[in-house]
Known about the structure:
The chain is of the alpha/beta class. Helix content is about 25%, strand content about 25%. The longest helix is centred in the middle third of the chain and has 21 residues, at about 135-155. The radius of gyration is 17 Å and the shape is globular.
Amino acid sequence: MALFTIGxxxxxxxxxxxxxxxxxxxxxxxxKIKTGFQAVGPEDVCVLCGDISWGMSLEESLEDFKxxxxxxGRKIILKGNHDYxxxxxxxxxxxxxxHNIVSIEILHNNCFFYNDVALCGTRGxxxxxxxxxxxxxKISDREAMRLQASLQYAGNAKEKICFFHYxxxxxxxxxxxxxxLMEEYNVSSCYYGHLHGEGHGFATQGxxxxxxxxxxxxxxxxxxxxxxxx
Length: 230
């Protein structure tokens, strides 16, 4: 059994917003995802770090979820900024049950365990110039509360790994609330997506203040999930 992660699949099998239009590595990206997941075995776990489907509702995202469900391994998903289909956990679970989607679980105000390692996380946040300082703080505080809840569910786990959509650190920006919580709860490493194209150059990679950081956007990984543990 192995633990993998990848973010930003940006699937659009039920809508008209394929990423192929951006050219470059995104051309034939759905086939690349399918090929990349050949690295994942049926007993493995893969955390998907947000921006999963362009669907505006669960129904519009159904074909994307069916595609993910058919990929090998157990998948754990968290919310990205473009996951407009996102709903309450109960509604998502009921939707999955209704359509016999059995291999996808939801990381939201909770945590999962990979052996004795706790898998924690939340969407995260970075300041957005389209929002006021007050609005940015309100969203950041909410995401920090969700991360703390996730870390508390981990209890006395031997090791804690965090997964986000937004990067906790990039370029000259540090999301202090998120980073402080990771330090307080002795998180060993974290993985995040969101950054594409030239944004890859802004990513924080490697160890900073005792925490290992890694960018896992699908286009950065050439659509092959990153093995975290084996």
